[in-house]
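> Could you send the LapA family protein prediction when you get a chance?

Sure thing. Input:
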Amino acid sequence: MEKVKEIMTPKRIIILVIVGLFILFASLNFDKITINMLFFRINIPLFFLIIVLGGVGFLVGFLTKRNRDEQTIKSLKKQLSQRKEAASKPKVVAK
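Output:
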């Protein structure tokens, strides 16, 4: 039971609901559309465009968050090393 609580966090449940709604929305849009590029045109179902753009959005968000997490880790490590240095220096008490 504890393992299930670890896996099914509220954040993951919300993400699953959003992904489910996204897939439902995409699956209801199978109309063909024309995308005008600079020198050519593409005819594809709207479903594929929604899925591709959703995937690109997810990827950009994932990479951005990962970069921010790495910066936070570096900052925390720097603070920790500074505090260790300050703690290791002998303190001079004036009388």
